[in-house]
Amino acid sequence: MSSVFGTLFRVATWGESHGVSVGGVVDGCPPRIPLTREEIQRELDRRRPGQSDIVTPRNEADEVRILSGVYNGMTLGTPIAFEVLNKDQRGSAYDNQKDVFRPSHADFTYQAKYGIRAVEGGGRASARETLARVAAGAIARKMLTLAAGIRIVAYVERVHDIAMPEIGIAPTEAEVDATIVRCPHIETAGRMIERIKAVRAQGDSVGGIVRCHIIGAPAGLGEPVFDRLEADLAKAMLSIPATKGFEFGSGFAGTLLKGSEHNDLFIRKDGAIGTATNRSGGIQGGISNGEEIVFRVAFKPTATILRPQATVDRDGNASEILAKGRHDPCVLPRAVPIVEAMAALVLADHTLRNAAQNASMPPARRYEGA
How far apart are CA 223 and CA 3, in angstroms? Predict the structure, then answer.
């Protein structure tokens, strides 16, 4: 089903942008994992609207309520259901959009597929659905931290044509959240914020790139052929609204190198087998090799802009639309926790799959040899 993600660690999300609520169900989370509502809320606060003056001013606290699967602060091993109420709906802002299609939105494609659509806020196609992913991702992260010490950190690397310099190592979450744009390089972050404010004042929008590091993933996660770890990560990232590209390791830049320049040579490192470089991005043959898993996700400019745009109505007649409502001039700052959450869901799923396949031999943090 299109609203279910994962094989063993599974999450189903539900709800529309301006409906009563949005929520999800996590099935497959192991029992006896300490989990509190506050741990989930912390991640939702990083994603919620209205958190700064460079994101949508929609006033939603996004307070999560756990409905099942947790007892006295511990997971039960049964489905974990949660819900967030929509409290600041303004459906009337979309009255002028009922019979026309917004450029670069899912209006036309949803109408073509289903013959009906929730007009307000894009309904199910709205990025508001991603709050359920972030809540589920918080649960997955807690499992990964306790089971394998895996840490996931993403950050804004580029907004429009403003890119931060290469820093070589993954920043801390505190460094990422130190600025409202979630770029850990302070000088670049300031320029990014100025650009976002400038385009917003013009009724326009910009896109950019989020970079993500997964630290501490053991060698052996992933499956050959169709369920390769990078393939599942790509599916996860490209399922996020507004994404337009995914690359891991050296990505497209690697095409400019020769094999002799690109190969990651094996060495003995910290008493185990590792690689001298990491152009593979921590994944070889679809399976993690124990190095940092590194990937980048491209986000397009927000489709809703506060400028008149040419379009057509349901009958194909030429029309014009001027969007109303509250929208992000740049999705990047709020996309960071979403990228982290989807990465956590993929890693949690593959951790359980690997444990099931090798029940008598849990994966080591690094391959130690025979």
Answer: 23
Q: Which domains, and CATH codes, for the chain?
A: 4-357 (3.60.150.10)
How many other β-carbons are positioned within 10 Å of the β-carbon of residue 246? 18
Tokens encoding 317: 């007649």
pLDDT digits 0-9 by tens, 232-265: 999 999 999 999 999 999 999 999 999 999 999 9
**CB-based burial of residue 224 (10 Å sphere; 0-12 exposed, 13-18 middle, 19+ buried)?**
exposed
Burial category of 91 from C-beta neighbours within 10 Å (exposed 0-12, middle 13-18, buried 19 and up): middle
User: Within 10 A of 193 (CB to CB), how many other CB atoms are there?
Assistant: 21
> What pLDDT digit, counting tens, does each position of 36-52 carry?
999 999 999 999 988 99
266 is written with which tokens?
A: 């094996």
Tokens 């949005």 correspond to 22
Name, in order, each residue with C-beta under 8 angstroms of 318's C-beta and a sequence gap of 6 or more: 310, 312
CA distance 79 to 69: 5
- The length of the chain in residues reads 370
Q: What number of CA atoms fall less than 13 Å from residue 272's CA on the CB side?
A: 11
Look at residues 188, 236, 194, 159 and name the one whose alpha carbon lies nearest to residue 54. 194
End-to-end alpha-carbon separation of the chain, Å? 42
Beta bridge partners of 11: 5, 26
Distance between CA atoms of 250 and 276, rounded to whole angstroms? Answer: 14
pLDDT score, position 366? 47
CB 56 within 8 A of CB 99: no
Location of structure tokens 């770890």: 229
What would you report as the CA-atom Rg of the chain, rounded to the nearest whole angstrom? 21
Tell me if the pTM is above 0.85: yes
- The residue type found at 46 is R
